[in-house]
Structure formats: structure tokens, C-alpha cells
Amino acid sequence: MENSNKKIHLIGIGGSGMSGIAEVLINSGYSVTGSDIEYNNTIKKIESMGSKVHIGHNPDNINGAEIVVYSSAIKDDNIELVEAKNRKLTVLRRAEMLSELLSLKKGIAIAGSHGKTTTTSMISTILGAAGLDPTFVVGGKVFGIDMHSKVGKGDFMVVEADESDGSFLKLKPDYCVVTNIDYEHLNYYGGIENIKSAFKDFINNISFLGFASLCADNNILKSLFPDLSRKYFTYGIEQEADYYALNIELEKEFSQFDVYCKKKFIRKFKLAVPGIHNIYNALGSITLAKELGIETNYIFEGLKGFHGVERRFQIKKEDERLIIIDDYAHHPVEITATLKAAKNWDRKIVVVFQPHRYSRMQGLIDDFCKSLKIADMVIITDVYSAGEIAIESASSLILSEKMRYTGYKNVYYVPDKKDISLNLNNLLKGGEMVIFLGAGDITKYCDDFVDSKENKKIKLQDSITIAIAN
Fold this sequence. Notes:
Blueprint: E1 7-11, H1 16-27, E2 31-36, H2 41-48, E3 52-55, E4 67-70, H3 79-86, E5 90-93, H4 94-102, E6 106-111, H5 116-129, E7 135-137, E8 149-150, E9 156-160, E10 175-178, H6 186-189, H7 192-204, E11 211-215, H8 219-222, E12 232-236, E13 243-250, E14 255-261, E15 264-271, H9 276-291, H10 296-304, E16 314-318, E17 322-327, H11 332-343, E18 349-353, H12 358-372, E19 377-380, H13 396-405, E20 411-413, H14 420-427, E21 432-437, H15 442-451, H16 460-469
Parallel strand pairs: 1-2, 1-4, 2-3, 4-5, 6-9, 6-10, 7-9, 10-11, 11-12, 12-13, 17-21, 18-19, 18-21, 19-20
Antiparallel strand pairs: 7-8, 13-14, 14-15, 16-17
Helix pairs in contact: 5-9, 5-10, 11-12, 12-13
């Protein structure tokens, strides 16, 4: 976009993806306004940068705007979106605006069902360590930067590609990383074959002069390899990959591993974030960086200095009596990865889980049962609908009953999130790790629990008995 005097309005500006774009536009000199249904710290940050943000949607909010951008969370009947179309303004989806920004740089897009945010952040950190000063847009706040984005002076732009509504196909990056493909966003795609087709097209959309970094240990992604028309390099723990890890050591607060490329030792890497899933994220980043020609020492320093992303195994409180973790995991695969990482702490694990979307729960309820059983105790609160109509057979009560019927007794259904702190205070004996899981507003109740000085106690079993009886 050539004219930085244009006024751009973002519907859903407080979301993790949209706020990053807002920050880039503001820092690039554009006049930015926005709207969202609820005030949060992200909006507070955007306002501090000089942007006007309206709480609540109203047709008048777009007055003066020439371009209106909306996120995948915005429905077609949103009154601001409808008004923008009626006024014949330029209306863009988030991915279309991201594509416009990406075209100005050497674009690197990170896609995948899981691990996108962390991998995007790792790559941005590596490029920064190499002195390449990238621009980046991430779906979470990177620790040490406290922003979703940054406008750099270098040639590279790194973005997180959202596959949830297929709009990532609007992107035409020079390079890409695909972390994995899973049974996710079935409410949009309908089935795994459509998901595979979208990811194949995404990879084949990159520049003829570029390449892809792809996880060879993910069987669904691997099945696409014969149909790819772009150059790619693979990574994984299996030695058949181009880049692979050996001698993996998983500790409670870090991990380390040796990286090889086609049987040639590169060096030992150390991560300040736990879990095998983060080793995969690092391998995807290392593969991309090495093939870009970045020196190994810069890659090492970048990863060594990477301390994670907000709500990715974020320690909110830690002492001998209690550790409280806030985590974005909302898919069974992500929950499994988070809880396996937590096992290294050798503490009793108590999970507070808020399911995200009825459609996801409906398609994966048995997998949720299996993944949550890794914990020693589970509290389940009501589904965060994200605008979906409730599905009776995919409720949190049904999930808790399913877990009980399969022999897992330490599961409790607490429909009102405001009761979570009271229930936890009643249950905890000392020495536990409490992990709040979900992509909805459960993080607020994690913060409430951290700050809680509540001494009042209620009998949890009474609440679940009443709930099940009803």
C-alpha cells in the first residue's frame, strides 16, 4: 500500500491475529481505528499507540475509513461489515491485508494445526539474533517484546498463517514452514481431505525461488510430499528427515538436543521452553534458518534467548506450595503435549479446562477424554462457543460424564467459571501444578485464581452431583 495517509478500520482489533496487523500498520504510519466487543489489555496497548478503539459494533465506527479489515471471527452479518460493503469501501479479510504487507518484504509464513505461534516467534528471534531485523506478526505476545508484532528495517517479514477459514491461501510467501496437519477446524473444512488439499495449495503457493520447511514425522503432512511442486526440506526426530534431532534431553524447564543434517552433526541446541513439541518447533525453525544461509551460532543464540510466548506454558505463579500455568492448548494433541511437558515437574497435575467451540468438541470428544486423563485431576467448565450454536451432545457435562464412565474419577464439572477459584481452594492440598487450558476467556479466571485471597470453600462434589442430576 502506497498511501500511509489512508484510514484503516479493523473489526475485531483486540484478537491475537488482528492486533498484530494493527501494530504493524500503526508503526508504518497508517491511521488505524478499530472495534471489538470487549476491552482487554491488547486494546489498551493499541490505544497507547494512538489508535481509537470502539467497544461494541456500530455502523458509525467506520466513518472516515477507506479500508475495512475483518478477522475470521467476524460473522457476515456484523453491522460494521455490512455497512462497509453498502458504502462500497475496500473490504479485506485479515489474510488479504497480511498478504498485502507480506508482498513488501521477503515473506516467511508459518502454518500448521499446532505450534504456529511459537515457531513464528522462534524464527523471528533467530532472524533478530542474526542482525536481520525482521518485521513480524505473531498470534501471541513474545516474551521480552510484549507485542504481537514489530516493524523491522530488514528485508524479511515473518507471519503466522491462519488456516481456520482457508484464508491462508491468500498468502503468497517466498518461504514457509508447516509444522503439522491434524483434524482441526472441521466446522469449516468438513473432513481431512479438504484440510490436506488446502495445505497442499498453501505450500505450492510459495515462490518458485523459495522453499518450504516441513515436518516429516507428521504422517498427514508427509502424505502430501509427492504432490508438492515447490522445493522443500524436511525435519523431525526420525533420521530419514533432512534435519533431525538425537540425544534429546527433556527437563522440567528446558530441553536440549543434537541436530544433524543428512548424518552431519551441526551442534547441540538448548531451549528455555519445555516439551518435545517445542523441539519440533525449533527443528522447523532451524531447518528454515540453515537453508536461508544463517550461521549456526546465530541460530543457537536466537533459540537460547527465546523464552516463549504468552499463554504457551506460561508460569503465572511458582512456589513450593503451588505452580500455576496458563496455556492456550485447546485441541487434544496440544493438551497431550502440554501435560506431557508438565509431567517432568514431578508434581500432581490439576487441569482446569475450558473447551473451545462445540464443533471441535463434537468431533474430538473421545480424544479429549484420552488427553485429559494424563492429569491427576480435571475441572471442566462450560464450552466457550466462539459464536457457535450449542450442541447438546458436545457439552462439558457430557465430557465429564464420559471421563467418569471410562474409569477416571477425579473429574468435576463446574459450569460457572466464577466458582473455579473456590473449588480449587477446596481441592488443593499443596505441592500441585494447576494448569488452565483453553483458547477462550479461561485466562481471565487463571489470573483471578492467581490473585485470589478467597478463603471461602464449597463442596465440589455437591456441585457436580447437582449438575449431573439436572
